[in-house]
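2024-03-11 09:14:02 INFO receiving multi-entity request
2024-03-11 09:14:02 INFO entity count = two
2024-03-11 09:14:03 INFO echoing inputs for audit
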Amino acid sequence: EAQVTQNPRYLITVTGKKLTVTCSQNMNHEYMSWYRQDPGLGLRQIYYSMNVEVTDKGDVPEGYKVSRKEKRNFPLILESPSPNQTSLYFCASSPLALSTDTQYFGPGTRLTVL
Amino acid sequence: AQSVTQLGSHVSVSEGALVLLRCNYSSSVPPYLFWYVQYPNQGLQLLLKYTTGATLVKGINGFEAEFKKSETSFHLTKPSAHMSDAAEYFCAVIRSGNTGKLIFGQGTTLQVKP
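2024-03-11 09:21:47 INFO inference complete, emitting structure
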């Protein structure tokens, strides 16, 4: 089944403890992206990647890192999480450009930082 | 800077009534515009998009939207609401020439009353 998977789906952690949220897609998509969703703010883009080894900042990249070493995976790394990073996180992928292709979203990861 | 404004964080309609969700954007260059839907506890799904060409765009589930450049609007409509349309709806924009960066509106929750 074609899908975007995220792990873990739920995570409670403490301030400063490094964590990684994994994202994987099995559709051979070039484009991948991370968003965070907060009430009243909609979704905000954290980072995106147009291709392997190519990443760029979205609107809210502070406090996050990403890497794209292989096409299918796009992990989100929080080196030192803080409570303001408590949010619902979505990974998404698209065959090529957003202007021409449909973006597919993962199920979300709910992160709580205490 | 580009932005997207969705007028009304909550919209309530009766089953069978017209659905109208408003979206206005700001962009100095021709934009690409999108509407996404999020059902409870799920990721986002693309409803429709405008890139170039016909300004009236038809999407899935009977929804359509019209790009009006003079009004900088991209309102979403559906002639007759169904209970299954209850969800959160997001308008989004990317700037032509930068097809990786996606900016979302704050979202509108649609309630459908029997």
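2024-03-11 09:21:48 INFO post-check: Chain B has a mean pLDDT of 91.
2024-03-11 09:21:48 INFO post-check: The longest strand of chain B covers residues 87-95.
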